[in-house]
Design goal:
The complex is a heterodimer of chains A (about 120) and B (about 110).
Chain A lengths: L2 E5 L3 E2 L5 E8 L8 E6 L5 E7 L6 E3 L7 E6 L4 E6 L8 E8 L9 E4 L3 E5 L2
Parallel strand pairs in A: 2-11
Antiparallel strand pairs in A: 1-3, 3-8, 4-5, 4-9, 5-6, 7-8, 9-10, 9-11
Chain B lengths: L3 E4 L2 E4 L5 E7 L7 E6 L6 E5 L3 E2 L7 E6 L2 E6 L9 E6 L5 E2 L3 E5 L1
Parallel strand pairs in B: 2-11
Antiparallel strand pairs in B: 1-3, 3-8, 4-5, 4-9, 5-6, 7-8, 9-10, 9-11
Classes of the chains: A mainly beta (about 120), B mainly beta (about 110).
Chain lengths: ~120, ~110
Amino acid sequence: EVQLVESGGVVVQPGGSLRLSCAASGFTFDDYAMHWVRQAPGKGLEWVSLISWDGGSTYYADSVKGRFTISRDNSKNSLYLQMNSLRAEDTALYYCAKDIAGGSGEHYFDYWGQGTLVTVSS
Amino acid sequence: DIQMTQSPSSVSASVGDRVTITCRASQGISSWLAWYQQKPGKAPKLLIYAASSLQSGVPSRFSGSGSGTDFTLTISSLQPEDFATYYCQQANSFPGFGGGTKVEIK
C-alpha cells in the first residue's frame, strides 16, 4: 500500500524558515517524480514544486521560486521542502504527492499524503 | 503560465442526475489534463488522467473528454458519495489547477 506521510508543519513568523518532510513507502521511491502541492484554508489547490526521480531536475511555481527548495533522499525514501523567507500568503496545508511517472512529460498525481499545516503569523 | 478556468464554480444536483463540469485552458494542452475529487478534510483523489483515462478503482460513471483547450468531466448518475469539490489540472512541467467546482445536494 502506497503511503505518504508529511511532517514539519508549525506556526512560524514572517521571514522565518521551515523544512517539511515526506516519508514514502509502498512503492519504489526512486522510480517516480514527486511534488509538493498546497491548499490555503478554504481555497483551491496550488502546485508548488516538482523533483524528478533522480533529483536532477526541479521546477517551482513563480510564487515560491527563489525562496523554496525541493530535494529528495532516495536512500531514505524521503522528500523535502526547504521554505525560506516565509510570508503570510504561504499559510496552507502542504501535500506531498507522487507522480504517475518518472519525471518527464506529463505530470499527474496518483497518491497524496494527508498534508501538514504551515501557518505564517506573528 | 497556462490558466485553467472551471465552470460552473458550484452546481446543485440530485442523486441520479447527470452532471457535467467544464475546464478551459488558456492555451492548447493536447490531452494533458487530469480531474481530481476532494472531500472536506481529505486529500484530493485522481479520477481521470490524459483527459479520458479512468484511474484504477474509479467507478465507470466518471468519464472525461476533450483535447486542446476544452475539457469535460461527466458523472453519468450522481451517487451520494460523489458530493465533493472537483478540480481540473493541466499536466505540463509547471502543473496548474482550475479553481474547483463544488457539487452540492439539491
